Amino acid sequence: MTRALIASFGFDEKFVVRAILRHGIGANDEIVLVTGRPEPRAEKAYETVKRLADSADARVYLKQLGDAIYDFKSLIRETKKILREAIEKHERVTLLLSGGMRVIVLGLYTALLLLPKSLRERVRVELDTEDVYRLVEIPRSIINIFEVPELGAKKELLAVIAREPGLTIEELARRLNKDESTVRRQLQALLALGLVRVEGRPQRAYPTPAAEALL
Question: Would you state the pLDDT for residue 142?
Fold first, then answer.
């Protein structure tokens, strides 16, 4: 059974080191450290984690988000990719939110909530207390309270709107090869979910920030 440890990461490696030892991370396991822009102090902390990982025959990666930390939609998009990739590759995944920038901590947790329940429920979320003496685990039952809307056939319509904002209902119908009545009905459902907005005459559809994060 392979495991992945994903951690928000800054200038201090101690929380990650404790988690590696606590979970017995070893051969064929993976450690993913999520940080912001390249920083000498973060790279030095990464080298410490890498030496420990190498001694345990585990793989370690430093994911630098760069300017995505300054745009929350981009941050969610990038952190969702990181989480999804790890969850789909490994049987057990721990998300450690004890270090690094607050925006990255919030981004990782928000991205987790936006994943399908089948993926969310496979993740253990942990936080160390500031004094490093206690560990807090967020119960899965709380994480799973947040339900991502099931879009079904509407997801294709939403993807087109996100890719080409400002199309009319007639144009959307042509793009999707669907009846205008079908597109209009699906668009109303997306409006009710707060995922699109409609403006002008003729009506033109635009994605909301929630839609861009969800996709």
Answer: 83
Mutual angle of helices 169-176 and 154-163, in 10-degree steps: 110
Residue 149 lies in a domain: no
Phi, psi of 153 (to 5 degrees): -65, -20
**Residues found in the chain:** 215
Which pLDDT does position 146 carry in this prediction?
73
Please identify, among 143, 168, 196, the residue that sits at the C-terminal boundary of a domain: 143
Give the list of residues 6+ apart from residue 202 with CB closer than 8 angstroms, or none: 168, 169, 170
125 plus 208 within the same structural domain:
no
Residues 6+ apart with CB under 8 A from 24: none
**Nearest alpha carbon to residue 104 among 132, 71, 134, 133:** 71
Does 154 score more than 70 pLDDT?
yes
Predicted confidence (pLDDT) at residue 93 exceeds the cutoff of 90: yes
The encoded tokens of residue 124 equal: 């253990």
